[in-house]
Structures are given as C-alpha cells and as structure tokens.
Amino acid sequence: MKKEECKNSVANVPAEKPDTWRCRNCGSQAVQQRAWVNVNTGEVESFIDGGRDDYWCEACEQYGYPVRESELNSRAL
Ligand SMILES: [Zn+2]
Fold it and tell me: Is 0.85 surpassed by the pTM of this model?
C-alpha cells in the first residue's frame, strides 16, 4: 500500500513568531489601518498608508503609526 502524503503540508512546521504590529502609545495589538474594501466581496483590496491619521488604536483611541513588536521591545523604556 502506497501512502500518499502532501509534500506541501506546513501543518507540522512551527511558524515563526510573527512580528506583530503594535500601538506605539500603549503597546496594544488592536491597531487598525484604513483600507479600500471591495463592496461586493468585502475583501481588502489595498491599504491606505497616507499618514498617521490613517492608523487608529482601539485600545487608547489615538491616531498614530504602529510599530513592530521587535522594535517596541528593543527600545529602552
Ligand atoms: Zn494604543
């Protein structure tokens, strides 16, 4: 009996820890960015990254650019 296995399976490969975007003010992950969304499918077509007012933190309710978690951790507080 030949056992078929999916060569492309990545289920057992531990994913590298994603470098999460965080709020630079409070460190929350609840940061949002404005985007263009297809009205029919609801799919995000593209992100709007025009300025700091295009980013919003749900946690501290402030506009501002998010920062990478690694960047936040490397900063001396
Ligand atoms: Zn925040």
Answer: no
